[in-house]
């Protein structure tokens, strides 16, 4: 039996064209996706580089501020500022210094009703004129 071309449906005639268009769309979308992913990778790499530079800058700033703090806390700097501000402060005399001995936790007496003894000496012996 001979078939007539007029009896072919539109799907049969346009089938290869639809497949070609679908293949082109798939390849085009894949290409666009690839380029987009590469752009995202480049953007993330740039952000990482900026963050690393910022971290390094903050580390250097932290080191600088640590040196400044150490210099300001030095005894010579403190004495100079005391003289500069004319505060009239003097170093304590040896008899003015009170040393408290800390007992280890095992040696402490058990807590009695929420009251704890913090010093074994009376307060009047700790105060020096």
Care to give the gist of this entry?
With 129 residues, this protein is an all-alpha fold. It has helices at 10-72, 75-85, 123-126. It has a domain at 11-88.
Structural overview:
With 129 residues, this protein is mainly alpha-helical. It has a domain at 11-88. Helices cover 60% and strands 0% of the residues. The chain has three helices and no strands. The longest helix has 63 residues, at 10-72. The protein is rod-shaped, with a radius of gyration of 42 Å. Mean pLDDT is 82; it is low at 124-129.
The low-confidence parts are 124-129
How much of the sequence is in beta strands?
Answer: under 5%
* Oligomer state of the chains in this structure: single chain
User: What radius of gyration results from the CA coordinates?
Assistant: 42 Å
Number of helices: 3
Biggest sheet descriptor: none
Q: What is the strand tally?
A: 0
* Amino- and carboxy-terminal Cα gap: 130 Å
Molecular shape? rod-shaped
The helix fraction, in percent, is 55-70%
Q: Average the pLDDT over all residues and give the rounded result.
A: 82
- Class of secondary structure makeup: mainly alpha
Can you write the helix and strand succession as a string? Answer: HHH
